[in-house]
């Protein structure tokens, strides 16, 4: 590294660490973005210089849903094997957040002493960060419509991914979801080493393709795919009767790995992490022990005990994810659910996606539904439109004050049941702040 870059890197890291200390000491936040933003202004090649110091390699985890859980599980497996890991665990997954996470693990002069860096990456910036980071392994979880005010259609993103990944060295390992047609096709086009993961569980097929489906057309020829069954959204077992394109063969049998968290979607997260761990040479006893003792990431099927009552927080930030959390709720015997809808920057300012959610299934099963958040009336209207008649079995409570809404939800939850909370991202942070801070007591 040229001497001028060494000086700039030293200054960038030192200033970033000072900012982190000040922000956290004053209680202004987690300092997960600002230090990286300023450091990259001082040294624009900071991501490149720091990633080159990672001893064993960079692991990128990209996709619409499941990044945090998959990353945390893979971190747990590797740490249990004795490796030192850098991870953007706060969920800041744009360039500045990645820079902050790497800086967090350096010393004052910019020396990074870690074996692996596991970085969750927002799907829209994957093409931007591949060249500076030069990842050794890329996990491609899924592609769904997410924040409609920011991102384009699924096929546009997948084409950008394909072009960007194809420029990487051939020894790069890519692990795509075989059940996602766009990612299955992506993997089949690459010259890199490709390992697929996916489900083989027809007993878990949905009864019908949900409203929130994104990609049921062949990515090769454009004709409709023939689905033997779907697991969630457009993820399933498929073939194209026109051109012969079909689902790629997963490396692992999904039934061999235990369900560690609620929700079928977490089987995908588990399979992705296990496939990566095996490729990195981790033995099965370490992997299985890590899975058996795994604790969910905050807000992702996280269980809390509040005032002697069980509370489960299920992050619900887009149509596919919310349909899956609704499936978890409706498969339980619990009858109280709190839905919290926000439209802040981390959530996406367009909340029209709630009309693609199958809220009818939540309404049909009955019980008490409490709604809150910045856009609570939008959610209340969606639930009302889900009723076949006004004499529906649900009891709908609309409460603007989130703290009061949580209190009402807890009061309506019997001690032998679990209160399910379905919040968007910023709402999840608010909910956890109230629950863990015991502000309602």
UniProtKB/TrEMBL annotation:
Identification of the protein by name: Lipid II isoglutaminyl synthase (glutamine-hydrolyzing) subunit MurT
Ligand binding (Zn(2+)): 218, 221, 240, 243
Enzyme class: ligase
Role description: The lipid II isoglutaminyl synthase complex catalyzes the formation of alpha-D-isoglutamine in the cell wall lipid II stem peptide. The MurT subunit catalyzes the ATP-dependent amidation of D-glutamate residue of lipid II, converting it to an isoglutamine residue.
GO BP, one annotated term: peptidoglycan biosynthetic process
Catalytic activity annotation: beta-D-GlcNAc-(1->4)-Mur2Ac(oyl-L-Ala-gamma-D-Glu-L-Lys-D-Ala-D-Ala)-di-trans,octa-cis-undecaprenyl diphosphate + L-glutamine + ATP + H2O = beta-D-GlcNAc-(1->4)-Mur2Ac(oyl-L-Ala-D-isoglutaminyl-L-Lys-D-Ala-D-Ala)-di-trans,octa-cis-undecaprenyl diphosphate + L-glutamate + ADP + phosphate + H(+); beta-D-GlcNAc-(1->4)-Mur2Ac(oyl-L-Ala-gamma-D-Glu-L-Lys-D-Ala-D-Ala)-di-trans,octa-cis-undecaprenyl diphosphate + ATP = beta-D-GlcNAc-(1->4)-Mur2Ac(oyl-L-Ala-gamma-D-O-P-Glu-L-Lys-D-Ala-D-Ala)-di-trans,octa-cis-undecaprenyl diphosphate + ADP; beta-D-GlcNAc-(1->4)-Mur2Ac(oyl-L-Ala-gamma-D-O-P-Glu-L-Lys-D-Ala-D-Ala)-di-trans,octa-cis-undecaprenyl diphosphate + NH4(+) = beta-D-GlcNAc-(1->4)-Mur2Ac(oyl-L-Ala-D-isoglutaminyl-L-Lys-D-Ala-D-Ala)-di-trans,octa-cis-undecaprenyl diphosphate + phosphate + H(+)
Domain of life: Bacteria
Catalytic residues as annotated in Swiss-Prot or TrEMBL: 350
HAMAP family reported in the protein's UniProt record: Lipid_II_synth_MurT (MF_02214)
Entry-linked InterPro entries: Folylpolyglutamate_synth_CS, Lipid_II_synth_MurT, Mur-like_cat_sf, Mur_ligase_cen, MurT_C
Domain Mur ligase central: 61-204
GO molecular function, one term: zinc ion binding
Pathway per the UniProt entry: Cell wall biogenesis; peptidoglycan biosynthesis
Lipid II isoglutaminyl synthase (glutamine-hydrolyzing) subunit MurT C-terminal domain location: 315-428
Homology family: Belongs to the MurCDEF family. MurT subfamily.
């Amino acid at each position: 590294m040229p001497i001028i870059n060494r000086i700039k890197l030293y200054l960038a890291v030192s200033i970033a660490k000072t900012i982190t200390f000040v922000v956290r000491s004053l209680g202004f936040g987690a300092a997960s973005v600002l230090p990286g933003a300023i450091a990259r202004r001082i040294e624009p090649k900071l991501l490149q210089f720091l990633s080159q110091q990672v001893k064993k390699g960079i692991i990128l985890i990209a996709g619409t849903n499941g990044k945090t859980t998959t990353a945390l599980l893979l971190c747990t497996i590797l740490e249990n094997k004795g490796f030192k890991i850098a991870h953007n665990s706060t969920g800041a997954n744009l360039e500045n957040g990645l820079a902050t996470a790497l800086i967090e693990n350096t010393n004052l002069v910019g020396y990074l002493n870690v074996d692996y860096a596991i970085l969750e990456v927002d799907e829209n910036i994957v093409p931007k960060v591949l060249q500076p980071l030069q990842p050794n392994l890329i996990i491609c979880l899924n592609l769904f419509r997410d924040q409609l005010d920011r991102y384009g259609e699924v096929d546009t993103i997948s084409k950008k991914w394909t072009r960007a990944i194809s420029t990487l060295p051939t020894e790069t390992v890519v692990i795509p979801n075989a059940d996602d047609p766009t990612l299955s096709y992506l993997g089949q086009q690459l010259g890199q080493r490709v390992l697929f993961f996916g489900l083989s569980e027809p007993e878990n097929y949905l009864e019908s393709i949900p409203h929130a489906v994104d990609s049921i057309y062949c990515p090769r020829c454009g004709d409709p795919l023939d689905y033997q069954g779907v697991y969630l959204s457009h993820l399933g077992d498929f073939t194209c009767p026109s051109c012969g394109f079909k689902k790629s063969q997963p490396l692992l049998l999904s039934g061999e790995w235990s369900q560690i968290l609620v929700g079928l979607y977490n089987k995908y997260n588990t399979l992705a992490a296990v496939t990566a761990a095996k490729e990195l040479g981790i033995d099965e006893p370490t992997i299985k022990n890590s899975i058996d003792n795994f604790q969910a990431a905050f807000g992702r099927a996280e269980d809390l005990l509040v005032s002697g009552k069980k509370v489960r927080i299920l992050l619900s930030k887009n149509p596919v994810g919310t349909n899956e959390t609704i499936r978890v709720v409706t498969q339980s015997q619990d009858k109280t659910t709190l839905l919290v809808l926000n439209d802040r920057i981390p959530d996406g300012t367009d909340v029209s996606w709630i009309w693609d959610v199958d809220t009818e299934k939540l309404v049909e099963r009955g019980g008490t539904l409490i709604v809150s958040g910045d856009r609570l009336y939008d959610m209340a209207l969606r639930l009302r439109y889900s009723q076949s008649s006004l004499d529906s079995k649900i009891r709908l409570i609309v409460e603007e004050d989130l703290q009061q809404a949580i209190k009402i939800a807890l009061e309506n939850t019997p001690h032998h049941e679990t209160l399910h909370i379905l919040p968007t991202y910023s709402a999840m942070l608010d909910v956890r702040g109230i629950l863990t801070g015991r502000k309602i007591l």
